[in-house]
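Hey, can you fold this one?
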Amino acid sequence: MRLGLASVWLISGVVKLFDPGETYLAVQAYQVLPAGMTGAVATALPLVELVLGLLLVAGLGTQAAAVASAALLLVFIAGVTQAWARGLSIDCGCFGGGGEVAPGQTDYPKDLALDIGYLVLACWLVVRPRTRLALDGALRGGDDVRSGTPREDRSQTHEEV
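Sure. Predicted structure:
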């Protein structure tokens, strides 16, 4: 779950980072931000996605990264939903590209399904943030990955279970 969500953020962030003009057009196409904020959001968005992806790959601050991921995904879901409800013909810009498209070229149901799927991953990690090969466990002194509890707090031995 952690690495799946991390890959979404890393791919999305890298693509947007290397094409800032398209990212600007994608943010602008939603028509929800004041003109002065569009550039700031288009600049910050790929950086936020990359930071979330890197934190999740490392397993560092996994629960906080998952909460931030869920919040960002809710913003994306709201953005796509309002664009669809308002009859805008735009590409979501989720993985680069974006901006206005010809009527009939939109795929809002697929965009929403993907974002909801990613939201499920994020929510899973909010509830169960401890995973294998994560720095979170190493920094906490080797938490039990299966139960998510510190080893010294386990009351039953393996044989008792």
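Residues 143-161 have pLDDT under 50 and may be disordered. Let me know if you want another pass with a different chain boundary.
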